[in-house]
Specification:
heterotrimer, A alpha/beta (about 270), B mainly alpha (about 280), C mainly alpha (about 260), A: about 270 residues, alpha/beta, Rossmann fold, six-stranded mixed sheet, four-stranded antiparallel sheet, 9 helices, about 35% helix, about 25% strand, C: about 260 residues, mainly alpha, MetI-like fold
């Protein structure tokens, strides 16, 4: 069974109105369990929309999205995935531990079990000392680690990430990438990762999906065979640079100057509860 | 700084007494200058010393006691009014946050309800209360005053809480959606805690409002024992005893400050774990 | 979150429906439960009383309305003037702000009892003074906030142009404060009307709406009393709508959520 299957999906915002936007057209993508797939492309190529379709935070105009063998909606109701955004989005009024416990509370776990799992996750992301701290006491990178711990708290098979390291400085970013691979390796999670950064996509992924805008579509899928064990030295290897160049060239063919309105502006759909 | 401001106000008061026209004056033909004589504007020290003197001839209790008792009476009713008003306001806010139709339909009337003079509602509340005896429970007269306090208090709570409930960051709402959380779960785990910074200033307004409502109620339902009644009584006796009314007014002011101070305490407790940004 | 532009109809029908439903409910409840008029008059009786006494109601409305209006105008003018001073002189700011916050907590309308003694008994000045005071603080707190809470980036930009304080005031602070002024007016307008009534409870001249309502209730003329209440609500509504219209005119394009401060 595939982790994610996207078949013939298209997404149009404001369909039928003069400001209609074709965010995605004819998307076909299959992701197998254990893969780390990055979606990369210029603004407006629909990569975030694609992620949100998988997350069932929005519905496709046509086509279907299957997650874990089920329709995306069922997968969301069953909490088959965890999600991390660019802003860590931790709740100010909860301690770090209680933030990680949030999805478990919603699943109805009892207090003892929740706390144990939350502490396990904090240990995984190496933030055990900060269990009783509050979000504002943590740096950006640390907050993102808590967000990742939260996303994985219920041990979902799938992790969806929308430019989670975008707000961090370069050094912290590279460090977080190493950490992420370690964590996902330990938990064998499938990851779909949206990013702007070519080196980031190449470093993290087993496959890089290159997308282009107007209309949003997949133009290239590049396998990244840098092996399963990646560390700080990987970034300095020849093979790495070759891959980065390959991805860059795939992107170069895409018209990146935007005159079309931003996809984000067309996003006028209410969040489903 | 507050004390300094008070001193300044006192200084201006006394200064005006020194230079102002004893029988009031006119500016461009309009009688807008108040009378500066000792009857209309007693000296500040006269006001303060009045607290030690008895309420009327023949009594031995200093007026300070009477006035404080009145304030305590009003205070307890105001607390009840505040509690009822807050619950009502919260309930309405949740209803309006949940159903946009209710917000659009109800909010204009809530705004208008605040322009209805309380004094018209007073007899209504009293007579309804009279009829509302469930078994052994008899509607006490003070409860009508509390209801009127609640009537003024619920509005700021409703408006402030509604604003807070609808100002939740969209990213957090998406997070809850990704957990397939129900509206109720999102309400209690996200919207309410996120709304607290909006609710605190609203609760402070509600605290003052409930005191105002109770005082107006005391005046219009003839409820004796509270500070509103005292003010009216003493105002009538102002020609004979000018500083009397000030004793009651000053204590009323303190009452308002205490109510708001209590909300401030709640503020400190609820917000202790959050970063200290401007919540007002 | 931006919502799709709601049509005027979708904005209008809920309050209309709610209002009509409420009136119908009221009228039927009175009929069904056979409430006596002294207890709760039905809307129809109130409307009749309103029509019968329109001239008197109008007279009383003019008195209260004028008090509210004078207080509103003077209070707003003083509030704006003082807020300029506060923006300029830090010391004054540090003195005034705690006073304003403190007085916000206090039911200051009880001061009318004191004001009544300072003026001749037929004077309307105590009420106007009270309204002025209430409005003054509302406007002061909001406009002062608008003048001072300017983005740090904007201020740094102006300093890089070596702009004088006066220029900063004109070009940055005042435009920033305009929405705050209108937020204040939307609160102060109904507040001025309510304060005008409430001030009438403490004695003094008996020509306004507040005292009429009181006297009618004392005589158990409930339908008449509520007719005056209707007049009062209409007055309050008129003031509020005027403030809304002024806001639309002065700040076209709408106001982003500005937090409300004040009574």
């Amino acid at each position: 069974m595939n982790a994610v299957e996207v078949r013939g999906v298209s997404k149009v915002f404001n369909a039928g109105r003069p400001n209609a936007v074709e965010a995605l057209v004819g998307i076909d993508l299959t992701i197998e369990p254990g893969e780390f797939v990055s979606l990369i492309g210029p603004s407006g190529c629909g990569k975030s929309t694609q992620l949100r379709l998988i997350a069932n935070l929005t519905e496709p105009t046509s086509g279907e999205v299957l997650v874990n063998g089920k329709p995306a909606r069922a997968a969301r109701l069953d909490q088959d995935y965890g999600m991390a955004f660019q802003q860590a989005g931790l709740f100010d009024w909860r301690s770090v531990t209680k933030n990680v416990e949030l999805p478990l509370e919603l699943k109805g776990w009892d207090r003892a079990r929740r706390r144990q799992r939350a502490l396990e996750m904090l240990e995984l992301v190496k933030l055990s000392e900060f269990a009783d701290h509050f979000p504002w006491q943590l740096s950006g990178g640390m907050q993102q680690r808590v967000a990742i711990a939260r996303a994985l708290a219920a041990h979902p098979p799938l992790l969806l990430m929308d430019e989670p390291f975008g707000a961090l400085d370069e050094m912290t970013r590279e460090h977080m990438q190493v950490e992420l691979l370690r964590i996902c390796g330990q938990t064998s999670t499938t990851v779909v990762f949206v990013t702007h950064s070519i080196p980031e996509a190449v470093y993290l992924s087993t496959r890089v999906v290159v997308m282009s805008p107007r209309p949003g579509r997949i133009t290239d899928v590049i396998d990244v065979d840098l092996g399963t064990h990646r560390d700080v030295e990987t970034r300095e290897a020849d093979a790495f640079f070759k891959k980065v160049t390959e991805v860059r060239e795939a992107l170069r063919g895409i018209d990146t100057t935007g005159i079309e309105p931003d996809i984000e502006q067309a996003l006028e759909e209410p969040v489903e509860g | 700084m507050f004390l300094l401001a008070l001193v300044l106000v006192t200084a201006i008061w006394e200064l005006y007494k020194l230079v102002g026209p004893p029988d009031g004056g006119t500016v461009f033909g309009w009688t807008i200058l108040p009378r500066a004589n000792d009857i209309a504007m007693p000296h500040v020290w006269e006001m303060l010393s009045r607290y030690a003197d008895p309420e009327r001839r023949g009594s031995s209790t200093p007026i300070a006691v009477i006035v404080l008792q009145g304030a305590w009476f009003t205070f307890r009713i105001a607390i009840v009014g505040f509690a009822i008003g807050t619950l009502l306001g919260l309930g309405l806010a949740v209803l309006m946050a949940r159903f946009k139709v209710v917000e659009r339909g109800l909010l204009p009337y809530l705004v208008i309800s605040q322009t209805v003079p309380l004094i018209a509602l007073a007899p209504l509340v009293v007579s309804w209360g009279g009829r509302l005896s469930l078994g052994a429970f008899e509607w006490p007269r003070w409860l009508s005053a509390a209801v009127m306090g609640a009537f003024l208090a619920f509005f700021p709570v409703a408006v402030g809480t509604l604003k807070g409930l609808t100002s939740t960051p969209p990213a957090s709402l998406e997070l809850m959606a990704s957990y397939a959380a129900s509206w109720r779960q999102t309400l209690f785990k996200l919207r309410f805690p996120a709304a607290v910074p909006f609710m605190i200033p609203a609760l402070k307004l509600a605290a003052t409002a409930s005191v105002i409502g109770v005082i107006v109620a005391e005046l219009s339902t003839g409820l004796a024992g509270g500070v509103g009644r005292l003010i009216i009584e003493y105002a009538r006796q102002a020609t004979g005893d000018p500083s009397k009314v000030f004793t009651a007014v000053i204590v009323t002011a303190l009452l308002g400050l205490v109510m708001v101070g209590l909300v401030g305490l709640a503020d400190v407790t609820l917000m202790r774990n959050r970063p200290r940004e401007a919540a007002e | 979150m931006r919502l799709p532009r709601a049509s005027v109809f979708s904005l209008m029908w809920p309050p209309v429906v709610f209002g009509v439903a409420f009136l119908v409910l009221w009228e039927t409840a009175v009929a069904v439960f056979d409430f006596q008029t002294y207890f709760l008059p039905p809307p129809s009786a109130i409307w009749d009383a309103f029509r019968a006494n329109t001239a008197l109601i109008w007279e009383a409305t003019k008195v209260s309305g004028l008090n509210a209006f004078v207080g509103l105008v003077v209070g707003t003018a003083l509030g704006i003037a003082m807020s300029f001073l506060l923006a300029r002189f830090r010391l004054l700011n540090d003195l005034m702000t705690p006073l304003a916050i403190g007085l916000n907590a206090v039911p200051i309308f009880v001061l009318v009892a004191i004001f009544n003694n300072m003026y001749p008994i037929t004077s309307e000045v105590p009420r106007r003074l009270m309204v002025t005071l209430v409005v003054y603080f509302i406007v002061l707190v909001n406009v002062a906030r608008g003048l001072s809470e300017v983005g740090a980036i904007q201020l740094e930009l102006m300093r890089s142009y070596a702009a004088s304080e006066a220029a900063i005031l004109r070009k940055v602070r005042i435009p920033n404060a305009v929405p705050y002024l209108f937020t204040a007016l939307k609160i102060a307008a109904p507040a001025s009307v309510i304060t005008a009534f409430v001030s009438e409870y403490f004695g003094g001249s008996q020509n306004g709406l507040g005292s009429r309502i009181v006297s009618n209730i004392a005589l158990s003329n409930n339908a008449e009393a509520w007719a005056y209440v209707l007049g009062a609500c209409l007055l309050g509504l008129a003031f509020y709508l005027t403030a809304l219209v002024l806001e639309r005119v002065a700040v076209p394009g709408g106001i982003s959520a500005v937090e409300q401060v004040g009574a």
